[in-house]
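Much of what follows relies on a compact textual record of a protein's fold. A record is reproduced here so that you can trace the correspondence yourselves:
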Amino acid sequence: MAQTSPTEQMLEWLAARPAIENLRAGVCDFNGIMRGKLIPVKQAQKALTGGLRIPLSTTSVDIWGNDIAGSSLVYESGDGDGILQWTGRNILAMEWLEQPTGLIPLWLSDESGAPFLVDPRRALAHVLEKYSALGLRPVVATELEFYLLDPDEPRPTPPKSPATGKVRDANAVLSIDEIDHFDGFFNDVYALCAQQGIPADTAIAEGGAGQFEINFAHCDDALRAADDAVLFKRIVKGVARKHGIVASFMAKPYAQRSGNGFHVHFSLLDKKDENIFDDGSNQGSKAMQHAVAGLLAAMPESTLVFAPHLNSYRRLQPNTHAPSAISWGYENRNAAIRIPGGPAAARRIEHRVSGADANPYLVLAAILGAALAGMEAEQMPVDPIVGEASSCDLTHLPANWRTAIDSFETAKILPSFFSPMFLNLYASCKRQEERTFASQITNFEYSTYLETT
């Protein structure tokens, strides 16, 4: 009996859901925002078979959706179209909307059908091809933190408990009761993750009021792991809306509470499915140490990927459970790079710099690309830190957005795995966003200066 193709399976999935009358066809931009089209369900096959087109500039607009000034993809070239191709992931059921619909995940190719490497998902796939050529396969697990907020308040405010109607204002780290108060929300999130094949694992209450973290099981397909993170963020935001609350992955919603991190664990399997970071010792193999060295060397120039927004740098401060210095250590959460304990067979690297506001495709591309550069050069890292990073004499991460953009623009390692056009447009995008923020006068400035100077 002939097997049905993935496209046919998706069409059958839609046929079984007659309430769905239209779909979203979306591609992920630099900032992790899905951009695309609403299409009638009768165009699903066209979307699944490369029949839709969209401007190539779509993935490189700024956070507000504006074209990048001077972009070679816009006026210089006529803002030409690329081809939207299905990624192969199942249609995401957007059950939180009033009218049932679904999202078809897509990525971009140019007119010739070649991968368009400015597309963040394509950028990650390009890095993974380098691993595949060496007979290596990254195994990735991620951890995403987010806040639940009251939608009726103009500034971030902890939400009211659906169970009691009272504001949950305690920093209830690891409290099971905190999770119980939002049981309906979590049940819906896990149900949609299961439907989408997202391996959502442990959920915990984190260190801020209304802050939670959900971890994902290890996956030996890094592209799928990044898909999972992107789709998970949409699920969490959508389900929160359904439950009358707001979910935010902003890096630092509260000045005096914990920020939202996006921690990445990874190891590497060879052709025999053996972990090359494992040499039987607690220290890990030379390959692991080379990878650590590559990550440390690339960290200043790749910080803009891990901390892409103005607000991101409020999280990267000393004594906040977020790294501010370039460091590594064994079982040390004060370090930017942590080597977790446990069985030698599970030896892995945890990268702790990225905020939850970053684009998962670009974060994984920057991490895996830098690790590979370190292994290919057989670099050795500096000594691991012991104790608090702030007590050590260490080089620090870029202290602010503008410095991070400068470091990114003068990168020496990133060009070995990101395309020149991507590097140029990403830096230009962030320069444009930084200039826009710098041109604004805040209410705090007015209250401080208007009548006192």
Summary: DSSP finds twelve helices and 14 strands in the chain.
